Amino acid sequence: MWLPKLRELREAVKSLFSRPATTRYPFKPATIHPRFKGKPEPQDSCIGCGGCVNWCPSEAIEEINDAEGKKRQVIWHLDHCIMCGECERVCTTKDGVKMVPEFELAVFSRDDLHTVKEFDLVVCEECGEILSTRDHILWMLDSLGEKQPANLGLLNEKLKKLGIVDDASRSITFDKRDDMFVVLCPKCRHRISLYDSL
Question: Structural domains in the chain?
Answer without folding.
Answer: 39-167+178-186 (3.30.70)
